[in-house]
Amino acid sequence: QLDWLVGQWTFEDVEIEGDDREAGTRDCHYALGGDYIVCESRGTDHRGNERTYLWYFNYNDQDERFEIVSLFEGFARKLMYTV
């Protein structure tokens, strides 16, 4: 269901109501026996600050929902999204 994420990407993230922008590369591949897709992103914002972050995507068949866990360089909190 999430196979389309797998691959190497370039990206530009733009804040909807502001001036923040980040551009970089993203490499997504299967992980943990194929149960997850992990994306490692490396980006540079409009101020020249660089960062790396990871997204772990999976489908939780017990709760019947997609989940994303986000881990960011220099940011102690882990973020979790469900759909």
Q: If strands are numbered along the chain, what order do they take across the biggest sheet? A: 1-2-3-4-5-6
Mean pLDDT: 93
Largest sheet: 6 strands, antiparallel
Low-confidence segments, ≥5 residues, pLDDT <50?
A: none
Q: What structural class should be given to the helix and strand makeup?
A: mainly beta
Radius of gyration, in Å, reads 14 Å
| Percent helix range | under 10%
Beta-strand fraction estimate: over 45%
Strand segment tally: 6
List key phrases describing it:
single chain, mainly beta
Précis, in short:
By secondary structure, this protein is mainly beta. 0% of the residues lie in helices and 67% in strands.
Task: Give a structural overview.
There is one protein chain. The protein is an all-beta fold and 83 residues long. Helices cover 0% and strands 67% of the residues. It has a 6-stranded antiparallel sheet, with no helix packed on it. A hairpin with a 4-residue loop joins β3 (36-45) and β4 (50-60). The radius of gyration is 14 Å and the shape is globular. The mean pLDDT is 93.
